[in-house]
Fold this protein.
Amino acid sequence: MTDAVEKGLRRIGITVSRPVLAIICIIFGIILIIFPALVGIIVGIFLLIQGILLLTDYMEVRNQQARTYRSPSPPPTQPPPPSEQSQTYLKTENP
């Protein structure tokens, strides 16, 4: 779960090391034990943040796929027209 949280925080520009994230989790755990009425509020905030991160991840992947499918294909290559030198060579070669 910490990997998902770290990935989501990195996406919005926040970098947190694992020890700091662990301390934050411990602090929130203690707060929830002391004030059990806050469980609903903290879980609601977590679910809102997680939902936003999942939606932004989905939109980012979808935009990358759309850009990949829309990339222009190279124009078909045609052989160059025969030059005059090759035509004169063919004329002199075949009498």
Q: What stands out?
A: The chain has one domain: 2-69. The CA atoms of residues 27 and 76 lie 63 Å apart.
